[in-house]
Structures are given as C-alpha cells and as structure tokens.
Amino acid sequence: MLRQIRSYWVPLVIALMITTFVVQGYGVESGSMENTVMTGDYVFANKFIYGSKTPHYIPFTNVRIPILQLPPIRNPQRGDIVVFDWPGNRDEVHPSKPWNYFKRCVGIPGDTIAIVNRVLYVNGKYVPYPQDGKFEPFPLFPKGYPSAAIFPEGSSFNEDNYGPVVVPKKGDVIRLSADDFLAWKIFTEREGHQCNLVGNTVYLDGEATIVYWSWNPKIPIYDLPDRLASIKWNRIGLILH
C-alpha cells in the first residue's frame, strides 16, 4: 500500500517542483501580442531565469497567499517576452481575476519611455516594431486626448501618444505631493500601504498627528549624557497641522 502511495505522490511532488521553480506552461488569453503569440497558444515559460516564485494564489481560487522568490540569474532586458500576473485595471488595487499577461519588455529601470503617434521611443531613440507586430485598424488618438484607462490618472496620455515617463530604478526617491497623489496612490496600496491626501499633504499608513519625542540623532547613542542633553523639550507634545 505504501509503495502504491509513494508511486503516486513522488511524481506529483517532482512535477510541482518543476512547474514552480523551473518551467511552466501558460495559456495565452489576450490578443495584445499578435502575431508573436496568439490567443489559444500554450507556451512554456522559463521561470528560474528571473527568480522563481511560489504561486501567488491558492490553486483553483482567487485567494492570494504570501510568496517566496529565489535569486534571479539575470533581470529582464529590453526585447524579452515576459509572463506576469495581471495587476488589474489602472484604478484597481487587486485584479478582479487572476490572469497571465504576455508582454514584450521595452524599458528597464532608469529608461525614459514615450510613444508618439504609435511610434515607440526609449531614451529618445526610435525603437522599430517587432517583426510580427501589428496594429488593429482603429483611428489614431491625437496627442492631448486622454484615455480613461491609461496610467497615470489625470494625465493627457492615451494608447497612441504616451509619456514621456521614467521607469523608476532602485535608489530613486519618488516624492509624493498633492500634484502626483493620484498617479502613485494605487501603486502604494498594491504594496500594502494606506495612502491618503489631507489638504495638500500626503500621508502613508496614517496621518502624523503629534511629536512624542525629539532629540539629536547624530549624537552616538553610547554618548548618552550628550544625547539626553539634546532632548528638544519644546517639540515634545507638538500637534502637527
């Protein structure tokens, strides 16, 4: 009996390990990359090259679970065809359903991306269309006519005239203000933070209300007498407006 059970679960475990960390098949549900990949195609994706991840959802459900990721062999490069979880529409913190998206990477951290009359420019340089790329025969949206589905909210961008925008890179500081609050609100909430605009001030994870302690942090903690002498008594209890 144990041998029979082992003969079933060992192959299942091996298959699970392969599909989780090595290679996995995905079905193409979107026609946005025709004719490179077509709706109805089933494609194997190399998972370990970008750092394998455990599943984002409990199988056969929409319930998200914490994920673990292995170190990548390399980062995505321009021109790579990548598979990723659809993050949802522009104004959705969580997608309405799990969906695997196939897209071509056109920009990496630090790049400046722009589309001018359906022509892509990266860092000011023209990027030719992919060999199998195509456009649907829809009228071209002129510059200055905003699309309600395009990031960021409040911009004048559309599908055919977009940007320029800079892809943030590690170490960049994005300063939130009343002017760009709508652009970054969903991004911060997708990362598990609360983002609120009160007057002209943006608050992350709650509103700052009162100063409960203040001293000079530049004085080493081992120099305790000087650190204590630097306490700013006049700021303790200060109500923030």
DSSP helical segment count: 3
Beta-strand content estimate: 15-25%
Helical fraction? 10-25%
Overall 3D shape = extended
Count of distinct strands: 10
Largest sheet: 4 strands, antiparallel
The separation of the N and C termini measures 71 Å
Order of helices and strands: HEEEEEEEEHEEH
Mean pLDDT: 80
Class inferred from helices and paired strands: alpha+beta
**Spans where pLDDT lies below 50 across 5 or more residues:** none
Return Rg in Å.
25 Å
Main sheet strand line-up: 7-6-5-8
Offer a quick outline of the entry.
The chain is α+β, with helices and mostly antiparallel strands and 241 residues long.
Describe the model.
This protein is of the alpha+beta class. Among the domains are: 1-105, no CATH class; 107-169, no CATH class. 15% of the residues lie in helices and 19% in strands. The chain has 3 helices and 10 strands; from the N terminus they run αββββββββαββα. The strands form 4 sheets. A 4-stranded antiparallel beta sheet has the order 7-6-5-8, with no helix packed on it. It has a two-stranded antiparallel ribbon with strand order 1-2. The longest helix has 20 residues, at 2-21.
